[in-house]
Write a structure and sequence with these properties.
The chain is of the alpha/beta class and 175 residues long. The chain has a single domain, classed as Aconitase, domain 4, CATH 3.20.19.10. It is built from 9 helices and 7 strands, in the order H-E-H-H-H-E-H-E-H-E-H-E-E-E-H-H. The protein has a 7-stranded mixed sheet with strand order 4-3-2-1-5-6-7. Helix 5 packs across helix 6 and helix 8 packs across helix 9. Keywords: Amino-acid biosynthesis, Branched-chain amino acid biosynthesis, Leucine biosynthesis, Lyase. Pathway: Amino-acid biosynthesis; L-leucine biosynthesis; L-leucine from 3-methyl-2-oxobutanoate: step 2/4.
């Protein structure tokens, strides 16, 4: 078993609350699609909802939202902007399928929880156990979340799809 498989998949941070239907144009306005540096993209993450979001967030903070997070276009700029802004994970009642997969592909955990948005407070410190399938709240309460299939958990453990493929190909080349 390699080192990445031994890594505990836990994300800890403050909760940032958002509503339903947060689309990719809100996550990263289209006028920034000309940018190619993910650190530059990060500076504009969610700027239409929270002025200066990228400078206010602490590394590892967690977005907690309602239904249909990441709806809109299929571009991966939106999850990249969140990841490079320091977002540790996104928890929502539901996600656009393409946003969900784009996020996993770049190594940004996205977690489905039907109750998190209603039970977590703005700024509350929470912890997400991706392998166990639960969120622990600051007050000790626990919320069950949809667990990842093993193959998606492996992609996240490796830091994204490209890193996962590289690890797998390197492993095959050694055998």
């Amino acid at each position: 078993m390699d080192a990445s498989s031994n890594r505990i998949m836990e994300v800890k941070g403050r909760a940032w609350l958002f509503g339903d239907d947060i689309d990719t144009d809100v996550i990263l306005p289209g006028k920034y699609l000309v940018l190619t540096d993910p650190n530059e993209l990060a500076k504009h993450a969610l700027e239409g909802l929270v002025s200066g979001f990228s400078s206010k967030i602490s590394k590892g903070d967690i977005i907690v939202a309602g239904k249909n997070f990441g709806c809109g276009s299929s571009r991966e700029h939106a999850p990249l902007a969140l990841k490079y802004a320091g977002v540790g994970a996104v928890v929502a009642k539901s996600f656009s399928r393409i946003f969900f997969r784009n996020a996993v592909n770049i190594g940004l955990p996205v977690v489905i929880s039907k109750e998190a948005r209603d039970l977590i407070k703005e700024g509350e410190k929470i912890s997400i156990d991706l392998e166990g399938g639960f969120i622990t709240k600051e007050d000790g309460g626990r919320l069950v979340v949809d667990k990842y299939p093993e193959f998606l958990l492996e992609i996240l453990k490796d830091g994204g799809l490209l890193q996962n493929l590289k690890r797998r190909f390197d492993k095959e080349a050694k055998t």
